[in-house]
Amino acid sequence: MKVYFDVIGCRLNQSEVEEFSNQFMALGHDIVPTPADADIAIVNTCTVTGKAAADSRKRLRKAGRDGARTVVATGCWASLEPETALKLPGVNRVILNEDKDILVSKLLNKTNQEIATLTYHRVPLPGDRSRTRAFIKVQEGCDNHCTYCITRIARGRSRSRNFSKIQKDIQAAIDGGASEIVLTGVQLGAWGRDFVEPLALKDLIKYILTLPIDARVRLSSIEPWDFDTSILSLWKDERLCRQLHLPLQSGSDKILRRMGRQITLSTYQFLIDKIRKEIPEIAITTDVITGFPGESEADFKATQSALRQIAFAGGHVFTYSPRPGTAAYQMEGQIALSVAKKRNESLRNIFAETGHLYRNGFIGRELPVLWEYRQQIENNGWQLSGLTDNYIRVFCKTDLNLRNKISNVYLTDHAPSGNALFGEVMNTPQRPEQSGL
User: Fold this and answer.
1) Residue 118, SS3 per DSSP
2) What is the Cα 272 distance to its own chain's centre?
3) Minimal CA–CA distance to 61: which of 95, 90, 36?
4) Are the C-beta atoms of 56 and 78 separated by less than 8 Å?
5) What stretch of H or E contains 155?
6) In 3D, which of 42, 40, 72, 43 has the Cα closest to residue 56?
7) Residue 250 burial by CB count (10 A; 0-12/13-18/19+): exposed, middle or buried?
8) Is residue 259 within 8 Å of 148, Cβ to Cβ?
9) 146: Cβ–Cβ under 8 A, 6 or more apart, which residues?
10) What H or E segment, with its residue span, contains residue 4?
């Protein structure tokens, strides 16, 4: 059978799709790059914003229109609106988030034991889903109560995956040639709390760093109140990437309270200062939401000031999206979309400025770069794009095809677009160093 995957939204969705793909291939099925080639198309949907939900519906309709014989909807939007999903043209089946771990067994009429005992290595999905980084799902669900967020409702309470399942996925990624693994979860910092004998994220990272893996290890988003600063000692191991994504969401304490965020601006700033003292050149990135109900001009200016003061290496700006079923949906003081979009543009400009300043500090230095993308150019050369461990995008022209290799790169100048730097390859490509083993 030929299977096509599409994914909208977060890294966790990407991680799940890669695992489904591995299981299908281990059972002898083929993964294809387009729905036109597929017997079955599986779309992992998202509902974090209204746009993501609309995009999910669009992708489902397209999969059926392009010729997939069977279209399966799964993920957050499909789990919240299963009846609506089934009414879309071409959609034959919906598998809810609560059944996502057994998606392959349900579709192929296999037992859960048959799937659990499969052995496989990761093969990146074809087309634009092909990646040198492997997203490893370590945790599912969320115990927070942010008033704007529908994901907690769609994915349920926090549940942690155990060491053996995580190790199996990591080994499959390494065997498949991944040069970097990214630990992902809805509430990553809550990993281990739900075990009979509770553990913490630090325990998981320490365990992973004892494995004989020849790859970088990156953490995805962690809520600031879940971040235990004792974890910073682990960055002595150079395989841990010097980047942390810690969502702030607003620079106004009033708005943070309305959002249900368990932090104030001053406690967030204290955390950032502590991290930077321990790891001076670490890249701190964040998320902010603008246009949240009740956000006054003074609240917005407080966010502008916070972004400049903290000087993030980068960040994402989201215009508040009203989601039925959330507490914020019923709040007074809804902001006009035109105002919210204008504020969004202003905050993105600030991130561009602070990101430029952060990257400027690395010009004239050498950093290891994992090359992710390549494009052949004239004279059989290659245009490469990759990431440093501290999440700086680097572009380079070279005679060598270095995709999925790590090489030391001399960083020369700012690229005119793409929030990136230009660089020159300095040495023979290598795999990540294994410090701490």
Assistant:
1) coil
2) 21
3) 90
4) yes
5) helix 151-155
6) 43
7) buried
8) yes
9) 152, 249, 259, 260, 261
10) strand 2-7
Residues 12, 6 contacting (CB under 8 angstroms)? no
- Which residue is it, tokens 């990156």? 218
Place of tokens 């760093």: 209
Residue 13 to residue 74: CA distance in whole angstroms: 10
Q: pLDDT per residue over 265-281, tens digit each?
A: 999 999 999 999 999 99
Place of tokens 């070279």: 398
The token pair that represents 174 in the structure block: 């390494």
Look at the block and give the residue holding tokens 């191991």: 237
Q: Are strands 159-160 and 139-140 parallel, antiparallel or unpaired?
A: antiparallel
Q: Which two tokens stand for residue 97?
A: 């988030």
* Global pTM exceeds 0.85: yes
Average pLDDT, the chain: 93
Structure tokens at 397: 């022209």
Question: In terms of C-beta density within 10 A (0-12 exposed, 13-18 middle, 19 or more buried), how is residue 377 classed?
Answer: exposed
Q: Are 56 and 84 in contact (CB under 8 A)?
A: no
Q: Is the distance from CB of 82 to CB of 90 less than 8 angstroms? A: no
Residue 111 is encoded by which pair of tokens? Answer: 């037992």
Number of helices (H) and strands (E) in the chain: give both, helices first.
Answer: 13, 18
